[in-house]
Design goal:
Strand content: 25-35%
Helix content: 25-40%
Strand order of the largest sheet: 1-3-2
Number of helices: 3
Distance between the termini: 34 Å
Length: 83
């Protein structure tokens, strides 16, 4: 099923302040907390799975999260994260 939100090609340059969390920490109650955090600030949570390949050739699955802001600036992101 295709998401109705912005594509990663649009999110990456327009919302550069994203956070990567280990994929196994983004399920169940933890995902509910992420959704609640964004919702309390009037943001729309958006996530996608990415794979990290470390210098020792270890692969890890991560979930890249961007709480989509109407005005994606560093100042706005700092203010929201402080609240």
């Amino acid at each position: 099923m295709r998401s109705l939100g912005p594509t990663p090609a649009r999110i990456d340059p327009e919302w550069p302040y994203q956070i990567a969390l280990p994929d196994d920490l983004c399920t169940g109650q933890s995902f509910a907390l992420i959704r609640e955090f964004c919702g309390a600030r009037g943001l729309a949570p958006n996530g996608r799975q990415v794979q990290a390949i470390w210098p020792d050739h270890k692969y890890e699955n991560w979930r890249l999260h961007a709480c989509l802001l109407l005005v994606p600036t560093f100042d706005v992101a700092q203010r929201i994260c402080r609240s």
